[in-house]
Amino acid sequence: MIRTAPKRTYWIAICVSTFLSLCCIFFYLQAKKKLDQEISSHIQTVGNVTVQDFERTVHDNIISLENLKDRIEESNSEFMEYFESDATRIMDQHPAIQFIEWIDHDGIIREVHPLSENRAAYLLDIKPIEYRYDDWMTNSLNRKSNMTSWVHLTQKGNAFLVDVPIFIEDEFYGTVTAGMDFESQFNELSKNFKNFTIQLIDEEGEPFYSSGTIDKESFAERSEFTSSLQPNPESNKTWSFQLVFGDSALYTERDIIQKTALSYGILISIIVGFLIVYFLRWRHRTNQQLEINATLTQLNKELEEQKLAAQEASLYKSDFISNMSHEIRTPLNAILGFVDILGSKNLLRNERLYLKLMKNSAQNLLGLVNDILDINKIESGEVEIYNQVFSPSENLKNVIATYETQIAENKLHLNTSIQTLSNSSVRSDSSKFDQIFTNILTNAIKFTPKGSISVAYTEKVVDDTLVIDVEISDTGVGIPENKINEIFNRFVQVENGTRKSHVGGGLGLAITNELVQLLGGTIKVRSKNHVGSTFSIRLPLSIASETEAKITSEIRDLSDLNCLIVDDNRINRMILFNILQQAGIHADSVGSGNEALSKSKYINYDVVFMDIHMPDMDGFETTEKLLQISPLSKVIGLSADVTVESIRKGKLSGMNEYLTKPIDKEMLFQTLNKLNKTKEAYQNIYAS
């Protein structure tokens, strides 16, 4: 047993860590204090400047009236002839001025502009108005401008009434008066501020202007600025100015940096403490190497046990994925199968809509399951690349044709350009080729609410390789710049959180990228947010010989096939039976492996569809025994279990092909066509 280091070692480490942590806290508090002072100073500066701007705006409007007054006095009242035109010009220059009046020395409004909107005030005698006449007369006789509080007007609305007295030959002639509402000008001054609230209150305590929606109760005192504003230099009346700022982005960023630095500082302090412990303990144990070696041996043993446990956990993971794949795909197979069957019936419009929604939901769920299984295969390194002969241009056309109806239903315009050299056939994995462009095309449909989708295909021959270039463009939502470099990573989505508007697990593009690399190609993306995206795929594919291409293009009549369906699920048997029946193929069905063996003793079946998960005797054992009875039968594994391990066991048991549920009718008939060709080839060889 290793002897522990002296307690003094730990006390030294604790003291050093504590000292360093206290230093970090001290420097953090100093920095925070300085930051608070800076932000408070900044708010005071902004508040003072804003008060000056607001005050200057009010003064400018009053000065315009004083200029009009000066012109009337200098012209010995002759300028009154131009009162209306000059009032119009002043109002055009100062949007805060709602109207301009001339009130004679008796307190009667003799002129008002514009008249149509203020007719109720024309010839109004202000002497009976208590709040108005006394201040008006007192300030006018003292040759001072007068400004009321925020008052309700006789005509309508509210405004500040500003009176500028006119004296001609030292005799009181009346006042030039304007109704002012500064909201539009104050809004112009306020629009450059974000995350703020401004409120102005007149000398009577009446709020007359506010902007912003910040609740000042939510912020500290340093975020609030209050001051007084003197609207009229010749009056002792003042307005109350209140301004509340939310935390600015700069302050928040610096605060986060400081807190992060504090966290790192404390973490480093702790690490330093651990390093001290480690160093002192290492020095203390330099004479205990034998004991340390014994400890390492024990640790190696434990690590080996952990490794075995991890391998066992990995096996459990594979079993879990296998079981979940089977349990989820089995009901999906039933749902999609019955949807296809019901789709051929004469249904009401609403019933067809519900059927379509049901199919879309089931296909979305199936897509998520497939993505998870594909990622699992890629992670385990057990993805198989099949060597199949096909025409890439024709495959792409088929993929596009599959989604033409959906594109049209979404009211999108489809543009295609397929430029081929000679419809060359290639040797590669046809299904993975189709999956690549299916993923990209469905992505374009999903993220394009309006506009168009374009598909451009070109090819060129380089030595014995057909290099194809495909661009799929859309006018959809696009990809933000901060997401463009990680869009091919797993579980990365443009939208996140509870406000997502598109379904998906964030695996489609990751799988597509992996598949493109498996086929030796490259994929790139260009995108602009809210404009659209363009995915460019280049694949170098080996050119197939003319003989291979010719054999592949042949299609056989399948109506002469005699098939047996082996599945313990009655619904799955019904669905497959209906699919085969629509193609004119005769089929029997049984619910267990024992029944399949009994049938095969008396009937030679061309093709046997074999489920995997069955009671008493699973599909692998049934296949081995059935081929002993009927060696010429072709067995197609058909299961919701799509794990690599199940597919491998299926091939080892003698299955010719392995298809997955829910049933892909196109893949099903392609497989039957291929097996039918193989059957005829064997018959020809046997006949010769």
UniProtKB/TrEMBL annotation:
GO terms of molecular function: ATP binding
Keywords in alphabetical order: ATP-binding, Kinase, Membrane, Nucleotide-binding, Phosphoprotein, Transferase, Transmembrane, Transmembrane helix
PROSITE patterns membership: CHASE (PS50839), HIS_KIN (PS50109), RESPONSE_REGULATORY (PS50110)
Coiled coil spans: none
4Fe-4S as UniProt keyword: no
E.C. number: 2.7.13.3
Domain Response regulatory, first and last residues per copy: 562-676
Full protein name: histidine kinase
Catalyzed reactions per annotation: ATP + protein L-histidine = ADP + protein N-phospho-L-histidine
Organism domain of life: Bacteria
Modification 4-aspartylphosphate, positions: 611
Transmembrane regions listed in the UniProt entry: 9-29, 261-280
Residue ranges of domain CHASE in the record: 108-191
Domain Histidine kinase span(s) in chain numbering: 323-543
Pfam families assigned to the protein according to its UniProt record, in alphabetical order: HATPase_c, HisKA, Response_reg
The species this protein was found in: Jejudonia soesokkakensis
